[in-house]
Design brief:
alpha/beta, globular, 26 strands, 25 helices
């Protein structure tokens, strides 16, 4: 899918200025409440983000408490309101757009010159109301004209015109022409903002060249609404959306080129998020298409082998029912010894055959994918979504925002349940698709809306019904400082504790990259981490008594950042490590496995072998493993083994786990080690944990182990490879990677 962005689109100077002023107000609070007088801008997504940061919206100055900070909205306020604010014991940050201020001064000037003022604009709009109040404040008369049809019969000859800054120029021109036809020549103050004109012209030009058009911005934004009207005239398939969650891939079937524009109140990150989503849509199959299950392999001598099936054949139905996913296959074939299979062979020919198997015999096939009809995409607008924080250039599969309950069951990925319909619910209950892994985050609806978006209530209602039907689940809470921690977290845990179907709750800290501007901290300091651990302890103690397990688990980061003031739980606490993939129990598992390897004498064997071979082993890890791995090495007998702690510059932010390391950061770290060995007889060997690579052996930035090794030894380091230095992939636990290192040293 090709996506074209209008030459001029998105946040104008006035909006960017208002957002900067609001951020400065938040940073200067010193504990004082922060308000905006009316929504700062006409963009509900941005307003909700500010609310999540503690900024409240008030409609009247009297609502502001003493000592608070009040930010004036970008649309401006009337002189009387400013006067009222100046009398209050508060701090005022004026975020009025300079172009709006210019329009207000122009309106006052026209009135002071004795003219009756026509304000060309949208009746009831806050900017228009402010312009009218400016005229009245100097004793002038004013009327609001939205179209030429609003012109009255009797029009004063001493007429002045001022225009709402976001008005469509064609509206102004039509009104001036209508006045001219009646012999009236008004004094026109053209106060339409240049940014508005540029965006409207660029949108009109682009919408004439594309198959579909997306206009991004608040539904309550007049300038965005006008962009939608302009684009709709040129391109019938035009959509006005506020966020990515409103994008329906099915709407673009048959489209090859999509245009994107955005209102002046739409920040760049919202535009880029939607462009990324659009670019991931397959123009030929934008929505689920029951293409069937592609066979990856066929076991020799199996029933499917006997029936003539080969890799590449597609099963479209079993016993007349279409296959949507691996769950359907298991459901339809699991207890059967005879099934009717509809298929398409590798030549494209369709057929149907009955296949039988002996009792206990496997069908003997594996499929290419787990989902056969297309993955369900996420329609939420989570403020903390990691996928929205990724750099440009990553392969599209890494930024695919799935929210598919089937993958939750099959692979343990977390879903919000916000896109579940009644048919999905019925299927989950009928086929007992359980356990599910559910992203809960909070149960307070205001907090959930700020975190997830407008579909939050539906997701919680679905979860309640599924639990009532006996579906069990593990829950994840991504914790954001000052938003869903503290009392909100206690409320969420209390809600979850009362529901027996929730088998466990994992709490993970907010993760953020350098490619975003919303977050600057998580729970990286000692005090914040200890507060989270302290919050969950009462629930853990109660659960040990009631449920026989601690039930709620904090991610390893909280214990690491507590700087030894909170002990890492024993392995028994984690049970079967059901939330291992969330970073819950990884540190404990690694440490225990290391100590087991130590007891087995494996480190001593490694040292002996490497000393004999004149080698030194280097194991690459992210900063999350520091200082634990370093302490384990110091406490052991190892002299020929060291860690290389790699800082994640590629993603930045607070990303420090080993699994998100890239070749971009690892290559210079290894080359730095090589530099220290110039002139030495010792041969350094580099080992990268398998978790850094995907199932195909590729890093996040598209290096396989061969390409990575080539890059490490290039440019003056070729001699090390000639001596036997290598870069290899190994497993992630000491009892596995140390024996691998020993074996590699002998090759």
């Amino acid at each position: 899918m090709k996506v074209l962005r209008a030459e001029y689109a998105g946040a104008c100077y006035g909006v960017e200025r208002a957002l900067d002023i609001a951020k400065k107000a938040v940073s200067n609070t010193k504990g004082a409440p922060v308000y905006t007088l009316g929504p700062l801008i006409h963009n509900p997504v941005v307003v909700n983000e500010l609310i999540a940061q503690g900024v409240k919206v008030i409609e009247d100055p009297s609502e502001a408490v003493e000592g608070s900070i009040v930010v004036l909205r970008s649309h401006g306020v009337s002189p009387s309101v400013k006067g009222q604010l100046n009398k209050l014991p508060i701090h005022v940050f004026d975020a009025t757009c300079p172009f709006v201020s210019r329009a207000q001064k122009a309106a006052c000037k026209l009135a002071q010159d004795g003219m009756h003022v026509f304000v060309i604009g949208e009746k009831g709009h806050p900017e228009v109301n402010g312009l009218c109040d400016c005229v009245r404040s100097v004793g002038g008369e004013v009327s609001v004209i939205s179209t030429k049809d609003d012109l009255p019969e009797d029009i004063p000859s001493n007429l002045g015109i001022v225009v709402q800054t976001t008005q469509n120029r064609s509206v102004l021109d039509s009104i001036v022409r209508a006045l001219d036809e009646r012999g009236i020549s008004p004094c026109v103050m053209d106060t339409i903002c240049l940014a508005t004109t540029e965006r409207q012209s660029a949108a009109a030009e682009l919408s004439d060249k594309v198959d579909a058009m997306i206009v991004i911005g608040g539904k309550n934004s007049s300038n965005t609404t006008r962009l939608f009207e302009i684009c709709s005239q040129k391109c019938p398939k035009t959509f006005h959306v506020e966020s990515a969650e409103e994008i329906d891939p099915c709407a673009f079937e048959g489209c090859s080129v999509i245009g994107v524009t955005a209102g002046a109140s739409t920040p760049d990150n919202q535009i880029e998020e939607i462009i990324d989503l659009l670019e991931s849509i397959d123009a030929e199959h934008p929505c689920p298409d029951l293409t069937g299950a592609i066979i990856k392999s066929v076991e020799e001598g199996s029933p499917f082998d006997d029936a003539g099936f080969v890799p590449g054949c597609v099963i479209t139905a079993v016993n007349g029912q279409k296959l949507r996913d691996l769950i359907d296959w298991r459901w339809m074939s699991g207890s059967e010894d005879s099934i009717e299979v509809s298929y398409v062979d590798t030549d494209g020919d369709e057929g149907c055959v009955t296949i039988e198997r002996d009792e206990g015999q496997s069908w003997g096939i594996e499929f290419e994918q787990l989902i056969f009809d297309g993955v369900k995409l996420c329609k939420n607008n989570c403020s903390f979504c990691f996928m929205k924080q990724l750099p440009k250039g990553l392969r599209s599969s890494l930024s695919l925002r799935d929210d598919d309950y089937r993958l939750s069951f099959l692979t343990g990925t977390y879903v919000t349940l916000t896109n579940i319909d009644s048919q999905d619910e019925e299927r989950i209950v009928l086929q007992r698709i359980s356990p599910l892994y559910v992203s809960l985050h909070a149960v307070n609806h205001d907090v959930r809306k700020a975190l997830i978006g407008k579909n939050e209530a539906h997701g919680l209602e679905v979860f309640e019904r599924l639990l009532a039907e006996g579906i069990i689940a593990y829950v994840q809470i991504v914790l954001l400082p000052g938003q869903n921690d503290g009392k909100v977290l206690e409320e969420t845990l209390s809600w979850a504790y009362e529901r027996p179907g929730i088998l466990g709750v994992g709490i993970v800290p907010l993760g953020y990259t350098k490619y975003q501007t919303s977050f600057e901290k998580s729970f990286n300091d000692e005090t914040a981490s200890l507060e989270v651990i302290k919050c969950i302890e009462p629930f853990q103690k109660r659960a040990l008594s009631d449920k026989g397990c601690v039930w709620v688990y904090a991610a390893d980061e909280f214990y690491r950042n507590a700087n030894g003031k909170a002990k890492l739980p024993d392995a028994s606490v984690y049970g079967d490590f059901a939330m291992f993939e969330d970073g819950i129990g990884i540190a404990r598992s690694f440490e225990d496995d290391w100590k087991f390897a130590q007891a087995q004498g494996i480190p001593s064997m490694l040292d002996e072998v490497y000393a004999h071979a004149g080698m030194h082993a280097y194991y690459l890890v992210g900063e999350a493993m520091e200082p634990m791995l370093g302490n384990l090495i110091k406490e052991s007998s190892l002299k020929r083994f060291s860690e290389i702690v790699v800082k994640n510059e590629y993603f930045g932010g607070n990303v420090d786990v080993t699994g998100l390391l890239t070749a971009t950061d690892m290559i210079p770290a290894m080359r730095s080690v090589l530099s220290s060995y110039k002139g030495s007889d010792i041969i350094p060997q580099f080992y990268i944990p398998k978790v850094v690579f995907n199932d195909e052996g590729i890093t996040l930035d598209d290096y396989d182990i061969s390409a990575l090794e080539t890059a490490v030894f290039a440019g003056g380091f070729e001699s090390f490879k000639d001596k036997g230095s290598r870069v290899r992939m190994v497993l992630c636990s000491a009892t596995e990677f140390m024996p691998q290192m020993i074996a590699f040293s002998k090759q």
